[in-house]
Design goal:
Layout lengths: L20 H23 L4 H6 L1 E2 H5 L5 H4 L7 E2 L2 E2 L1 H21 L5 H19 L7 E2 L3 H19 L4 H17 L5 H25 L2
Antiparallel strand pairs: 1-4, 2-3
């Protein structure tokens, strides 16, 4: 079990819930994206609607900028006419990660900061993914999740003026394993989201120190 040291400073009202409201909502949204993908294929078996909401780099470069946002959530359950395990596994792992990390993230981010950090870092990750070239396609929320986790590292430094070696090592192990040992993974989205998260986490921590809350 990871000890976060002094990272935790904000306790949202949880009641008897083990997972914060924002964690529950984000996990539900990620799973809901798979449902959306399935419904889109039922409506349009040609999969045109589905593909239009995933990120196709070539399409984004030609003006389909909405894909930078929709591809964060929408995931394919059926792709090219068959059951797509890749979409299911990506959604399951991301939803589990949100729940597993909630004890750390909900202790640092207010709900507004949580959602904003997730969205901004996920979009930055998708923008970085464009460097892979126009023929690449991708989807998933992992860029935003890595952004949330990366923010914990620099938040801790900004608030406590120390680097949590345990947290950094844990982050690097998860990043390397999930980005480079698994097949067909968009590591650029992970890296882009993490870099943006480092910046945002530091800003949030710095503001906390300056404002004294």
């Amino acid at each position: 079990m990871l000890r976060a040291g002094n990272v935790k400073v904000h306790d949202p009202e949880r009641g008897d819930d083990l997972v914060s409201v924002q964690g529950q909502r984000l996990a539900a949204l990620i799973v809901g994206g798979l449902v959306i993908g399935f419904v889109l294929v039922l409506i349009d078996p040609s999969e045109f609607l589905l593909v239009a909401l995933l990120q196709e780099n070539g399409a984004v470069l030609q003006g389909a900028v909405w894909q930078l946002f929709t591809s964060i959530i929408v995931a394919p359950l059926i792709f090219q006419g068959t059951f797509y395990w890749g979409g299911v596994l990506d959604v399951v792992f991301n939803a589990i990660a949100v729940v597993f990390l909630d004890g750390l993230t909900s202790g640092v981010y207010t709900p507004r900061q949580y959602y904003a950090t997730f969205l901004i870092t996920a979009v930055v990750g998708n923008l970085v993914s464009l460097l892979a070239g126009p023929n690449q396609a991708s989807f998933g929320a992992s860029g935003g999740i890595f952004g949330l986790v990366a923010g914990l590292v620099t938040y801790d430094y900004a608030v406590n003026r120390r680097v949590s070696v345990q947290l950094v090592v844990w982050f690097l192990v998860v990043f390397i394993y999930s980005s480079f040992t698994l097949g067909n993974v968009n590591w650029m989205a992970h890296a882009g989201g993490a870099i943006a998260g480092f910046v945002i986490g530091y800003v949030i921590g710095r503001d906390k120190q300056e404002l004294g809350y």
